[in-house]
Amino acid sequence: MSKLKFPRPIEQANDEPVVKLPRRQLRSRNRDRNSNPPLNLCDLPIELLEKIIGYINIWHHNRIRGTSKRMRDVSDAFIMHEFKKAYHKSLLKNPNSYNCAALQTIDQATEVYVKSGYESTFCGCILPMLRSSYKDPFCPKVLQIKTFLLHFYDMVDKLIGDRRSQHSRLLFNLTLMRFFKKFDKSTIISINAMPLHSRIVVELKGPWLGMLWTSKSRCRDQPEKRCNLLIILAEMLMASITEKSFKRVWEYLSEIYVFGNDTSKCKRVRKTLFTFTVNGSKKICSLFRSCLEDPNDFVWPIKWPRDQFTVTLDITCKEAMKWGCSKSLHMEFGPFAEPLSSGEEEYMNDCSSGKTLLDVDTVTE
């Protein structure tokens, strides 16, 4: 039987050496080929990302927020956590301190907007103020709070698209009405509720407000006047919490406001009446009444009502009459509004960009 002959293997040339790898190295290479791709930082849970971003300097948060929506959400969660932590810490330490009053006022002036989906706008606007006093206890000054609120309200109106829209007016009126129950000496002295009409009179003892002069007699809704009213109430609330008296004259374009806070314990305490008249559907009237009657039991609706409404506000203060103000100040927040003049529009844009600060003359008692 003939033997099978196999061809001889081709011999390797001298210039092509054979590289022999140990078995362990071969196994490690196979593992690397079968392993998953490297993990992306944005794929981590938001709790871990918030913990990581806490070790980064607050001055770099602007760059981080601009990288992606995921990182902006993480930065928002971190900023909200730091703000709430500072607020609750000051509340436990001394509820009548200026630090607590400032943070409580910021929270009250922006609560409705934040819970309506503008949390990222709030965090982006408060970040510069947070960076200025991050190492020390977060305690912004009055002028910083005013500039922040002007910038925040202007940014929200730009996102909504129309300052005179129903959604913008609804958020403003809810914020305005929820302000009054934060005052210690706030009392509802009259309620007249009907199906399509509601009138509520709120009395504040101590804070007082009046308009000294205006070059244009307007009774219609003006977005800049709405911001002014919230900013004045914010400063009055801070004075009420800290139990400090003050008198202030604020000149704004073609208007001059006079307001203050009286902490004297005499029998004739300065009073201010705020009369709200709401014309709208039953759902709208009940929503606004709940803000003034039971703010702690207020139920945030899943969807805001879309029914048309008109709110008028009459402010009556005898103390302001001593300064030459009219007996009452009438403001209407309705669907029809007058356009801004060129000077007012430019001023609002400067305030939103931080170029213009408020000119305030303070007279302490």
UniProtKB/TrEMBL annotation:
<protein>
    <submittedName>
        <fullName>(Mediterranean fruit fly) hypothetical protein</fullName>
    </submittedName>
</protein>
<dbReference type="Pfam" id="PF00646">
    <property type="entry name" value="F-box"/>
</dbReference>
<dbReference type="InterPro" id="IPR001810">
    <property type="entry name" value="F-box_dom"/>
</dbReference>
<feature type="domain" description="F-box">
    <location>
        <begin position="38"/>
        <end position="86"/>
    </location>
</feature>
<dbReference type="InterPro" id="IPR036047">
    <property type="entry name" value="F-box-like_dom_sf"/>
</dbReference>
